[in-house]
């Protein structure tokens, strides 16, 4: 029985095999060959394919030559339904190319032929592109639009194309002169690294112009005569998108220049030599909006014909296959006031440490100036700095106290020192003895009595401080800002000495100068201010909010405690915003800082009465500790924060800077 069963099974297998053989019309092999062809074309490498009508190696060379102008792009290629006709077959090939932000799609047709048990592709240029003829390759022409401007208040041109001169050595103009000698003289003339520039010139080809430096035409001191006196040296005029000066709002705006070789390589075909791209700040953040879209034309051209021959040919033998129109960039509109921005920068020009001045309009939230001083070394201290705010934070303490029933006339105890869990806190050096003892909250605020505010720690919880901060627009999201910024960090939980340190703006409390200006502006407005800088955020717009951790070197702590890191991002706007009555009480106390406190130097600032609050925050491990110097002020519809990273007392260091700025601002 077992033997009979095996014979039956064997017979069944033979019948099935015969049936499959009879049904096998070669479709599976043709479909496999079609998929292999599509995969090879997508890789732009057909060297391993079975090819008829052309040597496989020659076919591979042709495909590379045809598509060389599109490098480094490669197509996606999909094979369609195979049409079988005996030992012949045809198959559609669907191509998709990424050309910048556009897609170029087309279908070609390939012919296959079976030889023995293998299918070979019948080589023809049309299977690469249906209109392509033998002896033709593709040509890509790119037209870039001019970069759009960055505008300020009243559509003032902050960044626009301004004349420049590229100074360098043109090796075609050297004659018999020594390239190295000319390069040395150019480097010495313009002040660049001599050895590096000489090496660069020597390595360049005989037709190269090697730029050493780009100079603004306006105000340049190196003359055409000085350049021409060096064999082979040239000044090539051009234009670049530039701010009014090299330093104007540089940390905020960023820069725009021709793409470097590294940027081009990283872009993977999205950039080419000569493209102007943004680096840092708004220029980088809104690069796509400002740069617009290149126009691209892809056409055929006879292989081996030079550009000169093409120009002379009548008619032009090229045929257009695909085109994308140039799209101009969209100007970026901001609220920056060029006069106030320049004034802020001029005010900080002589400040050695990192520093910042931020000015905004409380009624609208418009950021009018966000200047970072020369000591910031290009960092956007004004908007990204993360520092302990010191006694400026007493504005937030006071709001929390008002909500617990106190008023500016409530009495508090101002003692020379106060001890919390074994740690002693004291008032700033030079604190007036006449303001010690039982004093009004207004007086404690005006003279910035640390001990009085710390003594209220049991009546004001850390959660209440956090709530009061968000009520003043601090440590919340800034959906209208349109730029990267740190809006503050005020933890909702802190105990013992950490809570006590929070009462004087230290511990884990951190603000940026922008956040400090927002805090003051919210008092002036009588409602939380949401800052706005970019008016038309297009491509690349982020949602600005407090970052989750401070930048290296920017964290600050109360005296003797380790630096701290905020652990949570910004919150949504407060559900308990400051009221007009609360703002009125805070304005009363800020005015007292000027009329009876230690910011009396602001009393004679012309115009509307000035209200202010100073702040000094210890940081680092030095003994005595270094201090951040702060002052915030309101002056009519203007709120200003001034900050100096290593600056002594807020009143004596940042105060005079504020007075100078407010007096000149008018």
TrEMBL record:
Region annotation Disordered: where it falls in the sequence: 538-578
Any one GO MF annotation of this record: penicillin binding
Gene Ontology CC entries for this record: plasma membrane
Location in or out of the cell: Membrane
Record-linked Gene3D superfamilies: DD-peptidase/beta-lactamase superfamily (3.40.710.10), Penicillin-binding protein 2a (Domain 2) (3.90.1310.10), Penicillin-binding protein 2a, domain 3 (3.30.1390.30)
Composition bias, Low complexity: 538-568
Domain of life (superkingdom): Bacteria
Classification via PROSITE patterns: PROKAR_LIPOPROTEIN
Boundaries of every Penicillin-binding protein transpeptidase domain copy: 356-659
Domain (NTF2-like N-terminal transpeptidase): residue spans on this chain: 33-135
Predominant subcellular localization, coarse grouping: membrane
Keywords: Membrane, Signal
GO biological process, alphabetically ordered: cell wall organization; response to antibiotic
Pfam families named in the record: MecA_N (PF05223), PBP_dimer (PF03717), Transpeptidase (PF00905)
Residue span, Penicillin-binding protein dimerisation domain: 144-300
Signal peptide: 1-22
Homology family: Belongs to the transpeptidase family.
Protein name, UniProt field: Penicillin-binding protein
Protein species of origin: Arthrobacter terricola
Top-level taxonomy: Bacteria, Bacillati, Actinomycetota, Actinomycetes, Micrococcales
